[in-house]
């Protein structure tokens, strides 16, 4: 270790270093020595966009470093997914023996907007599909294992109604092994819903923040707003409620898709003269992604916690996207799209590119749940007209059911259980 800097009467004066500068340099060297190990750790961890791509595109990485990384165990990990297996690349297979993972009527926490059977859906075909990666098989979801891992911990979903769906799906997957009196679901304040497991001292929570940043759609109940405004640099407004979580799962997408330019507020919502800029959707979304990464970097200890980001949940509002008729949408669809190259709208592609750009340049090790492609085949799995409606339907609507079909949200059980199986895999077998 370097000795403390000598006083100004030493030969160092000749090098024209002021004592303060010298002290400063010595301190830097000291810190670098002390944390050198950690520095290299941080640098060699990065986003697991594609497990097979490993460190190849990171310059300055020696073989031994990526070797070391392979052996470094992520928090919660108990095993590994086979080398080179992209669990998001695969196909749906019919499996009536193991699907669905629970019955709609057995999970009391599903919102009435997602209980399709209760609301008259005439068939259950959408419930019997299992996701099969091409290069390996997913481990079976084990509720006991997950609860044990979450003992004394807090897991938090942050985002929009699709992330709320994934939260509820996870609760449904876990709740069957918890006795009746040992669990509760409550809205603790406007934006936060908490599922509590008494015996395990565990909470699984959902925080409503459809843009992650502060916006004029932040009211968890009343947020039907077409003129959407998001405030730049405001992630801490919500982020202060996320601190201390052991696992965080973010999503944000649909609310950015206004079809118009996004309105980004530079000052505060209280300002009388609001300074608003209107970047492209992609640039606005990029800003949010960067804010999220910065928040994670500053607030999560990634040596003992995990952070996930779920990609865009696809919608099926236009049959012409998959070669169907002009007027149609997901209504009356009971089979999935067979074309393995099907992707859907271009805006999804450009947003995926933004995610890819931002994450691949970042050193923050966020696990990416790339559910967009696998869900895009599932035009059959939306709630369509089989849900509790927010208000009474008009005679015109009733005469034309597809006019009010919901082709955004997913019936439960269904597709979102698969998202959680993938989350389970990434958490325990990264
Ligand atoms: C699930 O995990 C628990 C706890 O780790 C273990 O005891 C049990 O055998 C597992 N169940 C299955 C079916 O693998
Ligand atoms: C329950 O978990 C919290 C962290 O979520 C912890 O602070 C607390 O000490 C735990 N309580 C018990 C009784 O284990
Ligand atoms: C629903 O689909 C079936 C079979 O694809 C078709 O026969 C029927 O006419 C459709 N119903 C409506 C109301 O579009
Ligand atoms: C997600 O998966 C799709 C399809 O496999 C792929 O095109 C896309 O690049 C992936 N996105 C990222 C960010 O890895």
Automatic annotation (TrEMBL):
<feature type="region of interest" description="Disordered">
    <location>
        <begin position="50"/>
        <end position="69"/>
    </location>
</feature>
<comment type="similarity">
    <text>Belongs to the PC-esterase family. TBL subfamily.</text>
</comment>
<keyword id="KW-1133">Transmembrane helix</keyword>
<keyword id="KW-0812">Transmembrane</keyword>
<dbReference type="GO" id="GO:0005794">
    <property type="term" value="C:Golgi apparatus"/>
</dbReference>
<feature type="domain" description="Trichome birefringence-like C-terminal">
    <location>
        <begin position="138"/>
        <end position="425"/>
    </location>
</feature>
<dbReference type="Pfam" id="PF14416">
    <property type="entry name" value="PMR5N"/>
</dbReference>
<protein>
    <recommendedName>
        <fullName>Trichome birefringence-like N-terminal domain-containing protein</fullName>
    </recommendedName>
</protein>
<dbReference type="InterPro" id="IPR025846">
    <property type="entry name" value="TBL_N"/>
</dbReference>
<feature type="transmembrane region" description="Helical">
    <location>
        <begin position="20"/>
        <end position="36"/>
    </location>
</feature>
<keyword id="KW-0735">Signal-anchor</keyword>
<keyword id="KW-0472">Membrane</keyword>
<dbReference type="GO" id="GO:0016413">
    <property type="term" value="F:O-acetyltransferase activity"/>
</dbReference>
<dbReference type="GO" id="GO:0016020">
    <property type="term" value="C:membrane"/>
</dbReference>
<feature type="domain" description="Trichome birefringence-like N-terminal">
    <location>
        <begin position="84"/>
        <end position="137"/>
    </location>
</feature>
<dbReference type="InterPro" id="IPR026057">
    <property type="entry name" value="TBL_C"/>
</dbReference>
<dbReference type="Pfam" id="PF13839">
    <property type="entry name" value="PC-Esterase"/>
</dbReference>
<dbReference type="InterPro" id="IPR029962">
    <property type="entry name" value="TBL"/>
</dbReference>
């Amino acid at each position: 270790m370097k000795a403390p800097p000598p006083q100004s009467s030493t030969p160092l004066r000749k090098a024209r270093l002021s004592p303060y500068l010298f002290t400063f340099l010595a301190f830097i060297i000291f810190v670098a020595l002390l944390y050198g190990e950690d520095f290299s750790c941080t640098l060699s961890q990065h986003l697991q966009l594609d497990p097979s791509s490993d460190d190849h595109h990171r310059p300055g990485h020696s073989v031994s470093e990526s070797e070391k990384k392979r052996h470094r165990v992520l928090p919660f990990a108990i095993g590994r997914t086979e080398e080179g297996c992209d669990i998001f690349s695969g196909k749906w297979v019919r499996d009536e023996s193991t699907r669905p993972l629970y019955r709609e009527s057995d999970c009391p926490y599903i919102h009435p907007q997602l209980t399709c059977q209760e609301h008259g859906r005439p068939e259950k075909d959408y419930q019997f599909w299992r996701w099969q990666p091409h290069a390996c098989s997913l481990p079976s979801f084990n509720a006991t294992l997950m609860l044990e891992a979450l003992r004394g911990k807090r897991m938090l979903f942050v985002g929009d109604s699709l992330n709320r769906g994934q939260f509820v799906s996870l609760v449904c997957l876990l709740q069957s092994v918890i006795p009746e009196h040992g669990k509760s679901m409550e809205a603790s304040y406007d934006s936060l819903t908490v599922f509590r497991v008494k015996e395990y001292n565990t909470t699984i929570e959902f925080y409503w923040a459809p843009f992650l940043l502060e916006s004029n759609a932040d009211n968890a109940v009343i947020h039907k707003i077409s003129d959407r405004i998001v405030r730049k640099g405001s992630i801490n407004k919500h982020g202060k409620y996320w601190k201390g979580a052991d696992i965080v799962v973010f999503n944000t997408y649909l609310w950015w898709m206004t079809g118009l330019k996004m309105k980004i507020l530079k000052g505060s919502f209280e300002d009388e003269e609001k300074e608003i800029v209107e970047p492209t959707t992609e640039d606005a979304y990029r800003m949010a992604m960067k804010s999220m990464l910065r928040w994670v970097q500053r607030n999560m200890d990634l040596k003992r916690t995990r952070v996930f980001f779920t990609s865009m949940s696809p919608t099926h509002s236009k049959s012409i996207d998959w070669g169907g008729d002009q007027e149609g949408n997901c209504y009356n669809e009971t089979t999935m799209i067979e074309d393995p190259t099907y992707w859907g709208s271009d805006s999804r592609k450009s947003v995926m590119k933004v995610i890819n750009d931002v994450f691949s340049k970042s050193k923050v090790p966020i696990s990416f749940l790339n559910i967009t492609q696998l869900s895009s085949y599932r035009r059959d799995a939306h709630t369509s007209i089989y849900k509790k409606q927010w208000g009474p339907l008009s005679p015109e609507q009733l005469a034309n059911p597809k006019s009010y079909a919901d082709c955004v949200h997913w019936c439960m059980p269904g597709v979102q259980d698969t998202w959680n199986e993938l989350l389970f895999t990434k958490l325990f077998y990264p």
